[in-house]
Write a structure and sequence with these properties.
The protein contains 16 helices and 14 strands. It has 387 residues and is of the alpha/beta class. The radius of gyration is 26 Å and the shape is elongated. The model has no long low-confidence stretch (mean pLDDT 90). It comes from Aureibaculum algae. Pfam families: AAA_lid_14 (PF25601), Response_reg (PF00072), Sigma54_activat (PF00158). One of its GO terms (molecular function) is ATP binding.
Length: 387
């Protein structure tokens, strides 16, 4: 249930704002504060999803409330309420981090669109924080082969820059993991990393997913919606399987890279974005270019740094480490004791042809842990890890 705070010293306007927002959605919980000082105390002691704050108020004005909130709870989007003479100040608050501003008297549609968009942004921030915690806990680059050591070395050099990176390699090799490590080790790590699987989104929806849309721009567009580029502002956007992106969407991505701005579907308004782009593909993009399926200019924009993730068959020396890593991870997930693998079992697994790469190895390890003996043996491998 979204929790919203309205800070406004004029009681009549405060009541109108609360009534409009409450009637828009019965699940909204709307609280009131009669001045900036009271509002600031409420922000400190509560978790709000959105704050609407007047600019000119006694005791503490809206600019000060905004600045203090940005320091203690920067994830809360703030809509500033401005009188006719406060427009310059309202614009200034945008530079200080406000999500938007609403003029008095409030226009109904303008207000509700701003509230919806601000709540959408808050939910994306929360989702990204959860994702980041999950990533930090579950993602780890395992291996000490020359190939993996080389990739780790590139990441150490590249992560601290804003250089765009193109990650290539077969399915299941860990391209997503490389992207997460790049983000985690970068100066953008405190900002969102937003993932987009370009192959999983229908071509007619990919542009809306990436750049957002305005209400009425196509059938089903019932409200304004921010896209993934806006959600990733200040952070990283990971375009997975970019080789499957439509040519139309490619053109818009190219513009975003060239000009650092995007426009929502159905709108001609430019929105500035500060996003690092990391892309990945299992396709040969040079071949796709020759066949007219991928833009050459976009390729050169993306491939500032190229990282090729090797197939598991090309780094077999890492398999013992990976087996141990997965065995420990699966035991933790299942709440059971970790199973060991005999030397012969590990050697047998190193001889397999891993067409599904690390993803396939992980599945086989889990199968052997479930079906094998207390110590997984070579016979268990022969019986349960059949190819």
């Amino acid at each position: 249930m979204p929790k919203i705070l309205v800070i406004e010293d004029e009681a009549a306007i405060r009541r109108v704002l609360k009534k409009i927002i409450s009637e828009e959605n019965a699940t909204y919980e709307v609280e009131e504060a009669e001045d900036g000082l009271v509002g600031m105390e409420m922000i400190k002691n509560n978790d709000y999803d959105l704050v609407l704050c007047d600019i000119k108020m006694p005791k503490m004005d809206g600019v000060e409330v905004l600045e203090k909130t940005q320091k203690i709870k920067p994830e809360i989007p703030m809509l500033m309420i401005s009188g006719h003479g406060d427009l310059d100040t309202a614009v200034q608050t945008m530079r200080l981090g406000a999500f938007d501003y609403i003029s008095k008297p409030p226009d109904l549609n303008r207000l509700l669109n701003a509230v919806r968009n601000a709540l959408d942004k808050k939910s994306l921030v929360v989702e990204n924080k959860k994702l980041k915690k999950k990533v930090s806990k579950n993602y780890e680059m395992v291996g000490d082969s020359d190939a993996i050591s080389h990739i780790k070395g590139i990441i150490e050099k590249v992560a601290v820059t804003d250089a765009r990176v193109l990650i290539t390699g077969p399915n299941g090799t860990g391209k997503e993991l490389v992207a997460h490590w790049l983000h985690e080790k970068s100066e953008r790590s405190k900002s969102p990393m937003v993932e987009v699987n370009c192959a999983a989104i229908p071509s007619e929806l990919i542009e809306s997913e990436l750049f957002g849309h305005v209400k009425g721009s196509f059938t089903g567009a019932n409200k304004d919606r921010a896209g993934k580029f806006e959600a990733a502002n200040g952070g990283t956007i990971f375009l997975d399987e970019i080789g499957d992106m439509s040519l139309s969407a490619q053109a818009k991505v190219l513009r975003a890279l060239q000009e650092n701005k995007i426009s929502r579907v159905g709108s001609d308004k430019d929105i500035k974005v500060n996003v690092r782009v990391v892309a990945a593909t299992n396709k040969n993009l040079k071949k796709e270019i020759s066949e007219g399926n991928f833009r050459e200019d976009l390729y050169h924009r993306l491939a500032v740094i190229l990282i090729k993730v090797p197939a598991l068959n090309d780094r077999r020396e890492d398999i013992p480490l990976l087996i141990n890593f997965f065995a420990e991870k699966i035991a933790n997930e299942q709440g059971t004791a970790k199973k060991s693998f005999s030397d012969k079992a590990i050697k047998k697994l190193q001889e397999y042809d891993w067409t599904g790469n690390i993803r396939e190895l992980r599945n086989v390890v889990e199968r052997l842990i479930i079906l094998g003996n207390t110590e997984v043996s070579e016979d268990d491998v022969k019986l349960f890890a059949s190819k």
